[in-house]
C-alpha cells in the first residue's frame, strides 16, 4: 500500500521533471540560435572575463564572447550530436542484432564474436582511438561514439529477438506462409521497440556525457564553435580569474543528464515493468 | 569449478585477439603514410623506403599483423615516434599512477555505496530510500570532470586546503601523496557511488522478496542479521559485476580526471600522444587498457562463483 502511494507520484515526478528538461533542451536546440542575444563568435574584447552584467547576463569569456549565447548554441551542438549518434547506433544495432538473433547459426556466432570484442573496449577508449585516427570534428564524434555504442544496441535487440522468435505468434506467421522478412518486420521488430526506447533515452545521456568529455579533452567539437565540453576546456586556464566560466557549462551538462536519466527511469518503469524496483 | 575457470578463460582469448586486430586495423586508417609522419622533414623517398623496409611496412598486411602481434606478446610495444623511448615501460609507469587512483576510488565507493544501497532497499519507498536514490541520481548526472573542476575551485583555489596540480607517488612521501590524491579520488568516489548504490538497492529489493528472507525473519532474526547474513550474499553478486565494469572503464575515463588535476597517468599519456600524433603510444595505450579491461572482467567473473555458487554449477 505504502509502495503504491509512493511509487506512483515518484514515477510521474521523474517523468514530469525529466520530460520538462528534455523539452527545454529540444526547444533550445531548435530555437536557441534565434533567441540568443549575441552571435556566439562575436568578440567584445573590453568585456573579456567579466562576470554577469546587464549586457552579458552570464558574463563574457576570455575573448569577450557572450556566455549565454554560447551556451544556447552549445545546447544545439550537444542535442544534435547526441541525436545523430543515437540514430546511428540504433540503426546499425537493429540491423546487426536482428540478423544475429533471427538467422542464428554461424552468422550469429561471428557477429557476436566481433560484438563482444567491441564491448571489451570501454566506450570512451574506443571513441578516443577512433578520434585519434579521424581527428576532431563533429562527423568524427558521431562515427566514433556511434561505433562505440552500437554493440550495446546489438546485445539488447538480439536478446529480444531470440526470446520473441520462439513465441507462438511468430510461429503462426510462418505457418501462414509469410516470408521470413515479413515476419521479422511485422511481428518480431515491434517487440523490440519498448526496450529500444528505454535504451535510446539512456544512451542519449551517455552520448551527451561522452561528447562533452571528448570536447573537454580537445578531441571533440573543435573551437571556436561552442559546445559545453569545449567551453569548460577553454575556461580551465582562467579558473582563478573567472570561475563562473566553469560553473555554467557544467550546470548545463548536469541538468541535461539529470533530466535524461529521470526520463529514462520513468520510461523503464512504464514500458518494462519487470525492471521496476 | 575447474571447468568453469577453463571455459571462461578460453572465452577471453578470441576476444583479446579481436581486440588486437581492431587496434591494429584502426591505426592502419591513420590518414597519410605513417613513415612520412615519423620522418617529418627527413621524408625523402629513399628514407621512406628504407624506413618502411626496416619497420617491415613493405610486407603484406597480414604478415605485418602477425609480426606486430608476436612483438606485443613478447612485451615489445614498439618505440615512441616523438621521444624514441620504448612504449611499454612508459605505459606501465603511467598506468601505476592511474591504477592507484582508480583502485582506491572504487574501493571507497564500494564501501560507501553498498551499505547505502542496502539501507535504501531495506527502507524501500521511505524517506531514506528516496534520499539515497535522489543523491545517487544527482551524482550520476554530474560529469566527473566538472565535479573535479568544482572541487578544485572550492577546496584548491578558494579555501586553499589542497594542492591543485600534480601527483606524488606513495613510495616517495605518504603524507603529501595522500593530499594530492584526495581530490581526484573524492571526485571518482562521488560519481561512481551512484550506479553502485542503485544496483545494490535494486538487487537487494529483488532478493528481499524471496521466501528464504521471510523465513529468516520468521525465525526471529534481527533485521540487521537478515539483511547482512542472508540478503547481502545474494544481492551483492550483480553489484560485483558492475564494480568490475566500473574498474575497467575508469581506466579509460580517467583521462578527463587526469586532465583536470594534471596527473601523469595513462589517460593523459594517451591524450598527449593523440595530439602529438605519436601513434605507437596511442596504439599501445589502447591495447593495454583494453587488455586490462578484459583481464579485470575475467577475474571478476572467476570470483563470481564464490559469491554465487549457482553460476559455476
From TrEMBL, chain B:
One of its GO terms (cellular component) is plasma membrane. It is found in: Cell membrane. It comes from the Bacteria. InterPro entries: BPD_transp_1_N, MetI-like, MetI-like_sf. Keywords: Cell membrane, Membrane, Transmembrane, Transmembrane helix, Transport. One of its GO terms (biological process) is transmembrane transport. Its main location: membrane. SUPFAM superfamilies: MetI-like (SSF161098). Residues 95-304 form the ABC transmembrane type-1 domain. The chain crosses the membrane at residues 12-30, 97-118, 130-154, 174-191, 239-261, 281-307. Pfam families: BPD_transp_1 (PF00528), BPD_transp_1_N (PF19300). It is a multi-pass membrane protein. Belongs to the binding-protein-dependent transport system permease family. This is ABC transporter permease. It comes from Microbaculum marinum. The lineage of its organism: Bacteria, Pseudomonadati, Pseudomonadota, Alphaproteobacteria, Hyphomicrobiales.
Amino acid at each position: 500500500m505504502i509502495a503504491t502511494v509512493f511509487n506512483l507520484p515518484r514515477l510521474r515526478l521523474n517523468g514530469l521533471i525529466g520530460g520538462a528538461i528534455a523539452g527545454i533542451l529540444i526547444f533550445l536546440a531548435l530555437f536557441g540560435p534565434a533567441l540568443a542575444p549575441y552571435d556566439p563568435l562575436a568578440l567584445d574584447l573590453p568585456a573579456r572575463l567579466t562576470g554577469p552584467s546587464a549586457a552579458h547576463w552570464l558574463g563574457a569569456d576570455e575573448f569577450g564572447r557572450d556566455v549565454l549565447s554560447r551556451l544556447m548554441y552549445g545546447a544545439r551542438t550537444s542535442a544534435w550530436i547526441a541525436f545523430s549518434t543515437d540514430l546511428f547506433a540504433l540503426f546499425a544495432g537493429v540491423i546487426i542484432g536482428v540478423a544475429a538473433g533471427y538467422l542464428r547459426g554461424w552468422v550469429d556466432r561471428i557477429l557476436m564474436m566481433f560484438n563482444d570484442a567491441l564491448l571489451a573496449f570501454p566506450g570512451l577508449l574506443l571513441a578516443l582511438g577512433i578520434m585519434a585516427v579521424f581527428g576532431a570534428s563533429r562527423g568524427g564524434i558521431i562515427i566514433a561514439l556511434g561505433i562505440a555504442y552500437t554493440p550495446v544496441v546489438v546485445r539488447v535487440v538480439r536478446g529480444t529477438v531470440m526470446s520473441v522468435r520462439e513465441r507462438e505468434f511468430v510461429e503462426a506467421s510462418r505457418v501462414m506462409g509469410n516470408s521470413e522478412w515479413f515476419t521479422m518486420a511485422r511481428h518480431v521488430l515491434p517487440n523490440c521497440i519498448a526496450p529500444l526506447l528505454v535504451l535510446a533515452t539512456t544512451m542519449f545521456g551517455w552520448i551527451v556525457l561522452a561528447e562533452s568529455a571528448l570536447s573537454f579533452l580537445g578531441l571533440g567539437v573543435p573551437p571556436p564553435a561552442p559546445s559545453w565540453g569545449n567551453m569548460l576546456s577553454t575556461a580551465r586556464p582562467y579558473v582563478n580569474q573567472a570561475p563562473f566560466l566553469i560553473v555554467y557549462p557544467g550546470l548545463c551538462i548536469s541538468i541535461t543528464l539529470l533530466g535524461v536519466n529521470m526520463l529514462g527511469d520513468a520510461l523503464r518503469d512504464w514500458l518494462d515493468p519487470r525492471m521496476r524496483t | 569449478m575447474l571447468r568453469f575457470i577453463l571455459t571462461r578463460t578460453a572465452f577471453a582469448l578470441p576476444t583479446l585477439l579481436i581486440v588486437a586486430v581492431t587496434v591494429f586495423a584502426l591505426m592502419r586508417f591513420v590518414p597519410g603514410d605513417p613513415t612520412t609522419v615519423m620522418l617529418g622533414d627527413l621524408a625523402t623517398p629513399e628514407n621512406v623506403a628504407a624506413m618502411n623496409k626496416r619497420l617491415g611496412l613493405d610486407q603484406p598486411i597480414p604478415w605485418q599483423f602477425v609480426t606486430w602481434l608476436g612483438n606485443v606478446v613478447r612485451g615489445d610495444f614498439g618505440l615512441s615516434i616523438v621521444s624514441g623511448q620504448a612504449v611499454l615501460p612508459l605505459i606501465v609507469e603511467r598506468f601505476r599512477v592511474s591504477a592507484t587512483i582508480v583502485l582506491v576510488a572504487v574501493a571507497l565507493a564500494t564501501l560507501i555505496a553498498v551499505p547505502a544501497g542496502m539501507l535504501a532497499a531495506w527502507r524501500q519507498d521511505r524517506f531514506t530510500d528516496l534520499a539515497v536514490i535522489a543523491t545517487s541520481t544527482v551524482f550520476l548526472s554530474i560529469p566527473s570532470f566538472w565535479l573535479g573542476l568544482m572541487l578544485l575551485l572550492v577546496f584548491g583555489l578558494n579555501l586553499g586546503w589542497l594542492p591543485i596540480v600534480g601527483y606524488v607517488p606513495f613510495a616517495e612521501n605518504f603524507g603529501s601523496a595522500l593530499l594530492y590524491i584526495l581530490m581526484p579520488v573524492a571526485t571518482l568516489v562521488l560519481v561512481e557511488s551512484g550506479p553502485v548504490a542503485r544496483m545494490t538497492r535494486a538487487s537487494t529489493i529483488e532478493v528481499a522478496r524471496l521466501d528464504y528472507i521471510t523465513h529468516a525473519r520468521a525465525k526471529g532474526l534481527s533485521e540487521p542479521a537478515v539483511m547482512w547474513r542472508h540478503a547481502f550474499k545474494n544481492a551483492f553478486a550483480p553489484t560485483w559485476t558492475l564494480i568490475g565494469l566500473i574498474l575497467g572503464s575508469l581506466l579509460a575515463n580517467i583521462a578527463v580526471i587526469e586532465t583536470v588535476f594534471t596527473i601523469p597517468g595513462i589517460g593523459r599519456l594517451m591524450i598527449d600522444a593523440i595530439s602529438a600524433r605519436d601513434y605507437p603510444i596511442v596504439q599501445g595505450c589502447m591495447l593495454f587498457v583494453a587488455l586490462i579491461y578484459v583481464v579485470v572482467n575475467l577475474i571478476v567473473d572467476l570470483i563470481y562463483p564464490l559469491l554465487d555458487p549457482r553460476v559455476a554449477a
